[in-house]
Design brief:
CATH architecture of the largest domain: 2-Layer Sandwich
Keywords: Kinase, Membrane, Phosphoprotein, Transferase, Two-component regulatory system
CATH topology of the largest domain: Heat Shock Protein 90
Shape: elongated
Strand content: 15-25%
Number of strands: 13
Structural class: alpha+beta
Enzyme class: transferase
Protein name: histidine kinase
GO cellular component, one term: plasma membrane
Helix content: 40-55%
Organism: Kosmotoga arenicorallina S304
CATH superfamily of the largest domain: Histidine kinase-like ATPase, C-terminal domain
Strand order of the largest sheet: 2-1-5-4-3
Order of helices and strands: HHEEHHHEEEHHEHEEHEEHHHEEE
């Protein structure tokens, strides 16, 4: 019995000893952890457990906030990149695409290009040259490139090498300059047209004046003929300069409009009186259907200019038609809350591909014919500017070879019957 008791006591002592060793080991680990936590939190190792716990909890909360802030910044930067108008790529050291923004998707028409080579995605041999030059020189590269998709587009391409932690990447930025290219082409065409339009009458005036100086002035008929040509060419140049000044003022907003209540009946009658002699001379019949008492808020002189430009064009382009009736209608009427100035002709019409550009400065479907008729190519541009200024709109219907209808729609002020 005594032996049995000794055995049990020995077992208990052994168990207590092993528990002691385990507690000692745990205590050692606790001391080490407490020491590490004290280092992280900046507290004294002798601080109470509750203080260490609070400090540790604050540290964890701060870390969570930092992670949240970092995540927010990453998302913010991604949002910024996705809303850039420029196309933005990140390329790895093997020339493969790691990241693209939304603008890239618009250019390529797909987002399935991650992992592909930039030179395979953008079909332009200059891209490959730029990339190889950047790799070789480790310097940023800059060039204009052309990409062909649904239509031709022009871009400025920037390639910038970036190295971080021994890893090489490249940033590629494409800025679309297609609109700038088109505007530059329009500017060059505009300058060329103005130069030509001014040179032609000046050359005629100079030539006939020089002939007169060397000619026998006693021949009154010849002198009269030459002076008549000089007068017509001078008038043509004056019209061009006046139209140019009008376009510039209307575009810049410097044109003054004396806004009053204008009765369109008076505008129509005034224009018909001016255009009558020209229409008779060219063999064009001008008819009208003008309702009385239609008022708009506008400038009388500008509305006359708008209407006269439309009727003048209609008469001239109807006169050159070789076959069929030569007729022009001027209609003024009110419908719903709008007043309409409508000019319809049976002239040569406007080809469908030209209708999109018909209101551009100096654009003419047939430049040779327009110059022969004394047109400046600015009349319809002026019509559109005036209509826009009066919160109106110009509509066009035309069939090539059959005639054209221009319809100006202006907010109605009142109708007096």
């Amino acid at each position: 019995m005594l032996l049995y008791a000794i055995t049990i006591m020995a077992a208990l002592l052994a168990l207590l000893f092993f528990r002691f060793l385990a507690c000692r080991k745990a205590l050692t680990r606790f001391v080490k952890i407490k020491h590490r936590i004290a280092q992280l939190t900046g507290l004294d190792e002798r601080a109470e457990i509750i203080s260490i716990y609070d400090a540790l909890r604050k540290l964890i909360n701060d870390k969570d906030k930092n992670i949240e802030m970092l995540t927010w910044k990453v998302k913010y930067m991604q949002n910024v990149l996705d809303n850039m108008t420029e196309a933005f790529f990140i390329i790895d050291e093997n020339g493969k695409i790691e990241y693209i923004n939304n603008a890239v998707k618009k250019i390529t028409g797909t987002s399935d290009i991650i992992g592909k080579k930039l030179t395979d995605v953008l079909n332009n041999f200059f891209i490959n040259d730029l990339y190889e030059e950047m790799i070789e020189t480790k310097q940023p590269q800059h060039s204009e490139i052309t990409l062909f998709g649904a239509y031709r587009e022009y871009f400025v391409c920037e390639m910038i090498p970036v190295s971080h932690a021994g890893v090489n990447h490249a940033l590629v930025i494409l800025r679309n300059i297609t609109n700038e290219k088109q505007l530059e082409a329009i500017r060059r065409e505009f300058v060329s047209d103005v130069s030509h339009e001014l040179r032609t009458p000046l050359t005629s005036i100079h030539g006939y004046a020089e002939t007169l100086l060397d000619h026998d002035l006693s021949d009154k008929e010849t002198v009269r003929h030459f002076l008549n040509i000089i007068e017509k060419e001078s008038a043509r140049m004056t019209r061009l300069i006046n139209d140019l000044l009008d376009v510039e003022k209307l575009e810049s907003g410097d044109a003054k409009f004396a806004i009053t209540d204008v009765e369109l009946t008076e505008v129509g009658r005034y224009v018909l009186k001016i255009i009558g002699p020209l229409a008779d001379e060219l063999g064009v019949k001008v008819m009208d259907d003008i309702e009385e008492g239609i008022f708009v808020e506008g400038d009388f002189d500008r509305l006359v200019q708008l209407t006269l430009n439309l009727v003048d064009n209609a008469v001239k382009y109807t006169a050159v038609k070789e076959h069929g009736p030569k007729e022009v209608w001027l209609r003024i009427y009110a419908l719903a809350n709008f007043a309409f100035i409508e000019v319809e002709d049976t002239g040569v019409g406007i080809p469908e591909e030209a209708q999109k550009r018909i209101f551009e400065r100096f654009f003419r479907v047939d430049k040779a014919r327009s110059r022969k008729m004394g047109g400046t190519g600015l009349g319809l541009a002026i019509v559109k500017f005036i209509a826009d200024k009066l919160n109106g709109k110009v509509e066009l219907e035309s069939e090539y070879g059959s005639g054209t209808t221009f319809r100006v729609k202006i907010p109605l002020k009142k109708v007096i019957k």
